[in-house]
Amino acid sequence: MIAPAVTELAAHTSTARACALLGWSRATHYRAQKPVAQRERRPRPAPPNALTDAEREAVLARLNSSRFADKSVAQTWATLLDEGEYLCSMSTMHRLLRTAGQSRERRRQATHPPRARPELLATAPGQVWSWDITKLRGPERGVYYDLYVVIDIFSRYVVGWTVAAREDAEIAKALLADSIKVHGAPSSVHADRGTSMTSKPVAQLLVDLGVARSHSRPHVSNDNPFSEAQFKTLKYAPVFPDRFGCLADARAFCEAFFAYYNHEHRHSGLGLHTPASVHHGTAGEVRAQRAATLQTAYAANPARFGHRRPTPPQLPTAAWINQPSREALIQNN
């Protein structure tokens, strides 16, 4: 835009004056008037010390041989040099591999089969349980207690818990056995890949009871969301202490907390019902009573509700760990 204006103004005054008034460089203006002619580029001549076609093929063949196919260029070059053989420099080897489209990791890489994505669906209590272990701070630095919690993913009801001084597979086995004895065996039990979760005692117990085992993928916390969310509710509670004075202190706190959690805590994922109400099948009656109370309030003052009949929150119809695909649901049915 400026160059045409400089040319037009220069017709009435000097080019230097026009460039100064418009803030334009004279060198740029003159260069635009007389563009530099593009010189023809001549192909670069091959250097006299370049490898011949036969030598390049020989180097590539040696690099791709069974002996050196999985070795780096540096390893290959040094091995050949130690054996009294020099083909070319390491940079030349890299250049030949790059030209041949082989400039990648030459060593064999360990490959691991992908872990199966756990997909579990529960449409009623008692179908799928999830369990995990979390640490509770003890009275001193470095002292921790282990809290084991088993939860029903549909009702969020804690069907079993215990606090121990250590993590142990036998403790986990006893907890699961007691929980199954009281509440009945679920169809599936899900956990992460901790040592207790994958231990032989726990696995053998579930096999003997005909309960399917499911495990999270390594380093994927989202594969065990119900246990993780329950631990967050526990540790973010206002009454949760920074440390526990002793093992009995931790057990007493958890006993009071889980009684509150199961029977008093209104869970947002359960339509604001308690886990015990959903687990034991009384949530429908509670919801009907809520609906009757709302209808009475609406009849007394419809304008307060904008003349729209209020309804209580819906009850859950399903809970899942990694919502199963439509194809998986069809196969399972």
TrEMBL record:
GO terms for biological process: DNA integration. Residues 121-283 form the Integrase catalytic domain. PROSITE patterns: INTEGRASE. InterPro entries: Integrase_cat-core, RNaseH-like_sf, RNaseH_sf, Transpos_IS3, Transposase_IS3/IS150/IS904. It comes from the Bacteria. GO terms for molecular function: nucleic acid binding. Residues 32-53 are annotated as: Disordered. NCBIfam families: transpos_IS3. This is Transposase. The lineage of its organism: Bacteria, Bacillati, Actinomycetota, Actinomycetes, Geodermatophilales.
